[in-house]
């Protein structure tokens, strides 16, 4: 057997590559490979494979995948022998020889290279690093689902590869052969364009290889990018590299170490150093929690993100940024503070701490400039030496941290923008950030390691209770302990409250467990004296006006993470002005928070309290009416948003008449529609389930129909399938003659997207039969197009043309020129797939003209893109680029970012065919950035193309 994980996950037996199965099975093999030799527990596997939260069936799914891997990797792929997948205490592990896995071979070579560097043999070290990096073929575990690959277990291996690139750059320059490091440096800097130490190494290597102009251009590119994307100037290491290039001091010299001592006035950034005496060593960490427990696995994960300690005279590691994210009450701050104390000795120049109060209901979030000034004071800057203005203060902050090893803990961050001004600019520091939101901006901009903290596992929850109650008490009431853990959802906040209650004399755990069991889903378990959550909430609730109290309890019907003013107004049947006033009243009472203007949210425990009040104080008719108004609001607004963003694309049916008191969101244009959809998609998905369960089947299938295209554009395949299945069940239960064919069609198309073609075909055939019986020409034509799409994916192009021919006839009979134009473009695309590019030009050009006549901008852009694709394959590259640029301009005008990325990718392909590799890389890079920002699963394909082309010799 042979395996690779430094790049795509692959496996071979006797020279023949194995098919590794579905994405989660491939991801499971990747996890076993990066944790090679160590057991991986079932709970760890579940956490990694479902980063957004596992379904109940997750353990069984994992066991199924493990069994499949054991059969696949066993001798001759047999079912009897387990092969290298071994089960033991602690979980499963992969037991293979070092020569059989690229990661193990890489680690051995990299360690030998480091030893050669320590022995003063830079040429040998360079050779060994080069041999190791030949095994690096892209991001680790490339090709598994992006959200799974974001797990720290994979990020730690990526960092090992980057560490080897840095080492190779240092040794190659010292050995006088900097060109040996250029290929891996280009690959690494393309993937991490804002990593200043890597960029500094590239600048020096280019200059040392005699490419001085290219080195200066590389410095200029990263300087501009830092200014545009982060609003910062280059740090000390990058500035020093640039200066060495200007002075011509780059050959056969190690990069200059960054001094931590005083600077002269003529040194780079020297004038930013304060006039005061020696810099102080801050020690601002809060005290560690004495009873901290239950997070052993999480601590190990975060430990793995830190580079191994190096010799005192070695190049300092790049600054590591780690974000610990998760829901309120999950213990983010406790974990961050505990781990910070645990690793503080590795940062001898001090620790900085700030509570950014990003979600504090009692105060506004802290301005990062205020935090910056506080940090400068802590670092010894005298008030009279404090620069004026945020830019000057930020520059001084980065200058003071340059060459120092400081731990910076930023607690409770609101967003990435609040954090960016507080990031050091030079290597050697650690930045630890906690937040209730995902800080994707830090991941994209500075390569932050994102770590999502979830409720404790059962073992961790038991450890927490043991630390608070003692082992004897736990053993004496073992059954009650298990019940308490299960019923409180393993949330650290809830466990702490329950432990405090159990510590009172005369209160056995069994009575708390019984109370939990009797009131599951309520706050009964969290009541009692100072830890009485219900008492605290009710004290604020009783002070509300009747209108505010009613809106608060009705908000429990909204399934999304937050609620807009218009949705809240619809729930309560209020006018918008009255709703705003009532929401403001709730916010002042700290029962709601307003994370962004006009949107409101509350803590999960508050939501549970609102649900209690809803069930006890609101009539069934009142609840039904409120949910109906909320669904009317959602359906009306999502249809308006889709009409603005994707006019003429979505299937339409007449919605139920809205109830009195419904407030539809006013969307002023495409940008407002896109913002609303991006914000509301989670809530819309959940509302389909609410509609199905709450007695609104027509709303369920019409909402599912409305979100079909937004979910498809974002590549959210699994959510799309789940939504359509829910809607189909509602339509079947209600016997809805119009909803059934629509949802059979949307579900069939979604299933095809994930390769479930047989089930997809069954749904599409059923949809066509139902639409035909209803004499519904638009539904028939849309279904025939989906059938053609499916046929093309299976290389049955004549079948596809037959389907398109029927759809075209239906549109002609209905006098639907937009439909005809769309089908003509898709017919042209089918001819492209058949290699009939001249025929494709004819069909697609007709489609462009028809779309222009009807004013269908989206359709026109799609047809221009198809024309470009046909010209490209006829090697008419100039014509292709012209067509693509027409498409790109229209997609940008209408704001269709997914198809903008697709056209940019096509432009890059044509530029590459013309031999213009830099332009191709730039186009692919812009496309990949768009898809990554959207969280689209196809972004990895572009990144793969980028990495592969960047690594090719020019």
Automatic annotation (TrEMBL):
<feature type="domain" description="OmpR/PhoB-type">
    <location>
        <begin position="1"/>
        <end position="96"/>
    </location>
</feature>
<keyword id="KW-0805">Transcription regulation</keyword>
<dbReference type="InterPro" id="IPR005158">
    <property type="entry name" value="BTAD"/>
</dbReference>
<dbReference type="InterPro" id="IPR019734">
    <property type="entry name" value="TPR_rpt"/>
</dbReference>
<comment type="similarity">
    <text>Belongs to the AfsR/DnrI/RedD regulatory family.</text>
</comment>
<keyword id="KW-0802">TPR repeat</keyword>
<dbReference type="InterPro" id="IPR016032">
    <property type="entry name" value="Sig_transdc_resp-reg_C-effctor"/>
</dbReference>
<keyword id="KW-0902">Two-component regulatory system</keyword>
<protein>
    <submittedName>
        <fullName>AfsR family transcriptional regulator</fullName>
    </submittedName>
</protein>
<dbReference type="GO" id="GO:0043531">
    <property type="term" value="F:ADP binding"/>
</dbReference>
<dbReference type="InterPro" id="IPR027417">
    <property type="entry name" value="P-loop_NTPase"/>
</dbReference>
<dbReference type="GO" id="GO:0000160">
    <property type="term" value="P:phosphorelay signal transduction system"/>
</dbReference>
<dbReference type="GO" id="GO:0006355">
    <property type="term" value="P:regulation of DNA-templated transcription"/>
</dbReference>
<feature type="repeat" description="TPR">
    <location>
        <begin position="861"/>
        <end position="894"/>
    </location>
</feature>
<dbReference type="InterPro" id="IPR036388">
    <property type="entry name" value="WH-like_DNA-bd_sf"/>
</dbReference>
<dbReference type="InterPro" id="IPR001867">
    <property type="entry name" value="OmpR/PhoB-type_DNA-bd"/>
</dbReference>
<dbReference type="Pfam" id="PF00486">
    <property type="entry name" value="Trans_reg_C"/>
</dbReference>
<feature type="DNA-binding region" description="OmpR/PhoB-type">
    <location>
        <begin position="1"/>
        <end position="96"/>
    </location>
</feature>
<keyword id="KW-0804">Transcription</keyword>
<dbReference type="GO" id="GO:0003677">
    <property type="term" value="F:DNA binding"/>
</dbReference>
<dbReference type="Pfam" id="PF13374">
    <property type="entry name" value="TPR_10"/>
</dbReference>
<dbReference type="Pfam" id="PF13424">
    <property type="entry name" value="TPR_12"/>
</dbReference>
<dbReference type="InterPro" id="IPR011990">
    <property type="entry name" value="TPR-like_helical_dom_sf"/>
</dbReference>
<dbReference type="InterPro" id="IPR051677">
    <property type="entry name" value="AfsR-DnrI-RedD_regulator"/>
</dbReference>
<dbReference type="Pfam" id="PF03704">
    <property type="entry name" value="BTAD"/>
</dbReference>
<keyword id="KW-0238">DNA-binding</keyword>
């Amino acid at each position: 057997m042979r395996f690779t994980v430094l790049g795509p996950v692959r496996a071979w037996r006797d020279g023949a590559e194995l098919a590794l199965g579905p994405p989660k099975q491939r991801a499971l093999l990747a996890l076993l490979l990066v944790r090679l030799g160590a057991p991986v527990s079932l709970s760890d596997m579940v956490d990694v494979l479902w980063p957004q939260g596992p379904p109940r069936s997750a353990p069984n799914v994992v066991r199924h995948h493990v069994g499949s891997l054991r059969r696949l990797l066993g001798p001759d792929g047999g079912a009897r022998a387990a092969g290298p997948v071994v089960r033991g205490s602690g979980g499963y592990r992969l037991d293979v020889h070092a020569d059989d896995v690229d990661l193990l071979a890489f680690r051995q070579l990299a360690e030998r290279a480091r030893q050669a560097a320590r022995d003063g043999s830079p040429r040998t070290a360079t050779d060994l690093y080069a041999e190791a990096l030949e095994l690096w073929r892209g991001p680790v575990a490339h090709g598994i689902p992006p959200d799974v690959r974001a797990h720290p277990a994979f990020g730690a291996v990526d960092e090992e590869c980057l560490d080897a690139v840095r080492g190779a750059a240092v040794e190659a320059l010292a050995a006088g052969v900097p060109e040996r490091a250029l290929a891996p440096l280009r690959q690494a800097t393309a993937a991490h364009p804002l990593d200043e130490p890597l960029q500094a190494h590239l600048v020096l290597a280019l200059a040392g290889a005699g490419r001085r102009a290219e080195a200066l251009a590389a410095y200029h590119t990263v300087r501009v990018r830092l200014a545009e994307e982060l609003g910062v100037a280059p740090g000390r290491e990058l500035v020093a590299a640039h200066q060495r290039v200007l002075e011509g001091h780059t050959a056969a010299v190690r990069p200059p170490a960054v001094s931590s001592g005083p600077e002269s006035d003529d040194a780079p950034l020297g004038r930013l150093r304060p006039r005061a005496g020696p810099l102080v060593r801050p020690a601002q960490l809060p005290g560690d929690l004495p009873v901290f427990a239950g997070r052993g696995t999480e601590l190990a994960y975060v430990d793995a993100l830190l580079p191994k300690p190096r010799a005192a005279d070695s190049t300092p590691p790049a600054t590591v940024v780690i974000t610990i994210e998760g829901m309120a009450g999950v213990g983010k701050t406790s974990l961050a503070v505990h781990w910070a104390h645990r690793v503080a000795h590795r940062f001898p120049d001090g620790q900085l701490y700030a509570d950014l109060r990003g979600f504090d209901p009692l105060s506004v979030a802290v301005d990062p400039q205020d935090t910056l000034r506080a940090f400068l004071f802590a670092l010894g800057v005298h008030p009279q030496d404090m620069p004026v203005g945020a830019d000057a203060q930020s520059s001084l902050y980065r200058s003071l941290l340059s060459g120092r090893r400081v731990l910076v803990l930023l607690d409770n961050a609101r967003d990435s923008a609040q954090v960016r001004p507080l990031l050091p600019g030079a290597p050697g520091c650690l930045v630890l950030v906690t937040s209730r939101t995902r800080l994707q901006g830090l991941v994209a901009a500075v390569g932050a390691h994102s770590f999502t903290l979830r409720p404790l596992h059962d073992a961790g929850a038991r450890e927490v209770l043991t630390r608070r109650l003692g082992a004897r008490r736990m053993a004496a009431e073992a059954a009650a302990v298990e019940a308490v853990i299960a019923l409180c959802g393993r949330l650290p906040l809830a466990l702490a409250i329950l432990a405090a209650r159990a510590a009172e004399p005369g209160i056995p755990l069994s009575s708390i467990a019984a109370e939990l069991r009797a009131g599951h889903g309520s706050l009964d378990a969290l009541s009692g004296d100072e830890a009485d959550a219900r008492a605290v909430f009710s004290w604020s609730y009783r002070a509300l006006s009747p209108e505010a109290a009613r809106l608060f309890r009705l908000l429990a019907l909204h399934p999304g993470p937050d609620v807009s003013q218009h949705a809240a107004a619809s729930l309560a049947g209020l006018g918008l002005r009255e709703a705003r006033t009532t929401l403001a009243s709730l916010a002042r009472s700290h029962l709601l928070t307003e994370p962004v203007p006009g949107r409101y949210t509350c803590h999960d425990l508050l939501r549970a309290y609102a649900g209690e009040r809803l069930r006890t104080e609101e009539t069934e008719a009142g609840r039904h009416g409120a949910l109906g108004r909320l669904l009317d609001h959602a359906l009306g607004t999502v249809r308006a948003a889709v009409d603005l963003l994707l006019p003429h694309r979505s299937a339409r049916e007449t919605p139920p008449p809205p109830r009195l008191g419904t407030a539809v969101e006013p969307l002023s244009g495409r940008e407002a529609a896109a913002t609303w959809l991006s914000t509301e998609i989670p809530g819309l998905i959940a509302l389909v389930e609410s509609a199905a369960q709450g007695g609104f089947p027509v709303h369920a299938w019409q909402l599912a129909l409305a979100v079909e295209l937004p979910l498809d554009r974002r590549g959210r395949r699994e959510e799309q399938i789940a939504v359509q299945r829910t809607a189909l069940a509602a339509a079947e239960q209600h016997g809805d003659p119009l909803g059934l064919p629509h949802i059979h069609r949307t579900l069939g198309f979604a299933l095809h997207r994930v390769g479930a073609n047989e089930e997809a075909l069954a749904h599409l055939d059923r949809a066509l039969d139902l639409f035909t019986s209803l004499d519904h020409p638009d539904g028939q034509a849309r279904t025939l197009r989906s059938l053609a799409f499916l046929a093309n994916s299976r290389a049955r192009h004549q079948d596809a043309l037959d389907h398109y021919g029927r759809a075209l006839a239906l549109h002609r009979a209905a006098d639907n020129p937009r439909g005809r134009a769309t089908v003509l473009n898709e017919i042209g695309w089918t001819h492209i797939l058949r290699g009939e590019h001249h025929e494709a030009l004819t069909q697609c050009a007709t489609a462009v003209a028809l779309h222009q006549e009807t004013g269908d901008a989206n359709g026109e852009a799609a047809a221009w893109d198809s024309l470009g694709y046909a010209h490209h394959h006829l090697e008419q590259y100039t014509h292709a680029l012209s067509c693509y640029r027409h498409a790109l301009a229209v997609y940008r005008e209408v704001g269709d970012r997914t198809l903008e990325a697709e056209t940019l990718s096509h432009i890059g392909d044509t530029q590459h065919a013309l031999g213009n590799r830099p332009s191709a890389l730039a186009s692919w890079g812009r496309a990949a950035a768009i898809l990554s920002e959207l969280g689209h699963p196809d972004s990895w394909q572009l990144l793969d193309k980028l990495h592969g082309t960047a690594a090719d010799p020019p």
